[in-house]
Amino acid sequence: MTARQPRTARQPRTALFLAAAALALAAALLVAQLARADAAPASAGTARLAALAEDVTASDGHRYDARDHTGRTMDAAQIAQAQDGTYLAVYHTLLSDGRFHAAVATSADLRHWHRRHDFGPGTHQASLAPDGRGGYVLAYEKDPRNHIAVRAYANLTALLDGRARRAFDAPLTLSRCAEGTPSVTAVRGTTVHLTGHYRAGCDTDRQLRATLTGFRHWHAEPDRRLDRAVHAWGNGGNIGDRAPVELGGRRVVLVEGQGRRGDFGSWGTYAYDPSSGRADRLDIRTHGGSRAFANPSATLLTDPRGQPALLVSVFVPTEGSAPGESGQLLYWHEL
């Protein structure tokens, strides 16, 4: 006991030292965060995207809690526009069977949506892209054994009827637990380029990029550069859904990052510049002041007034939403 007394007497001093060190570290991180927030934008493209995407209240049109004509929520909706001007949405809904169902819907005004086809139970996080030949390529996450599934459709009618002419279900090559949230980034002939996520260490979602050749050969690899750009903003949770958009000849990627694992109210949206490897956090301002935004995507289209516009689609989790604003938010700014 006597031998331990001096150690006991020094404990308060050690505790004070550790507390001071922790405060100093926290202050340093805060200063770094503020410096990053005040730094120049990652690129002219991310700055342009921020100018168009941050203020929902000044948008030329918007809809909170988007739903189809049967009342199904349009979660994680991605919007496209067909050659005839029809608006297309691919999205998913959690139904009474306890499964997610991906679906495709059409609209004439971006506010009212008519569901045309349900792709079945266990499908979600859908992404749609034209193939350049009048057809479409659709990708979605599929369970059980969450993986990326890719389908090809000969034309718009086939897509709306759910008649795929080619199908491929990707193997899990980066994680034995899950790979998903696909985004079709390009279709060149019989080659489909995609991005997605994989469950790193069966624990946390991280980014991947993949190529499907001839609907037979699949290659996926981690995209650690994108992970680093989002992680630099202090995100300690999942890094998930993402989608590219071309602005002024520059490609920008909208991507979600989760500040804290398991906290749906900590999701944020970032604009990533692939050239510099940097990302800017978007300060999205809604009418009610919602603070969490996930599953972002952006689409260049002609709006219902016949004007070129940028449409942004984000999911507002209940945990970070203002009253009346949870669910899928669609809004657009004329260019």
Shape: globular
Largest sheet at a glance? 4 strands, antiparallel
What is the topology, as strand order, of the major beta sheet? 1-20-19-18
Cα-atom Rg, whole angstroms?
22 Å
Please identify the structural class as seen in this structure: alpha+beta
Helix content: 10-25%
The CATH architecture term of the largest domain is 5 Propeller
Low-confidence segments:
1-22, 24-35
| Tally of domains | 2
Q: What would CATH call the homologous superfamily of the largest domain?
A: Glycosyl hydrolase domain, family 43
Task: Give the CATH level 1 class of the largest domain.
Answer: Mainly Beta
Intertermini distance: 77 Å
Number of helices, where a helix is a run of at least 4 consecutive DSSP H or I residues = 4
Q: What is the percentage of strand-forming residues? A: over 45%
What is this entry, summarized?
The chain is α+β, with helices and mostly antiparallel strands and 335 residues long. Helix content is 17%, strand content 45%.
Characterize the structure shown.
- It comes from Streptomyces venezuelae.
- This is Glycosyl hydrolase family 43.
- The longest helix is centred in the first third of the chain and has 34 residues, at about 5-40.
- The protein is an alpha+beta fold.
- The protein is globular.
- It folds into two domains: about 1-40; about 40-335, Tachylectin-2, Chain A (5 Propeller), CATH 2.115.10.20.
- The strands form five sheets. The chain has a four-stranded antiparallel β-sheet, with no helix packed on it. The protein has a four-stranded antiparallel β-sheet with strand order 2-3-4-5.
- About 15% of the residues lie in helices and about 45% in strands.
- The chain is built from four helices and 20 strands.
- It starts with a helix and ends with a strand.
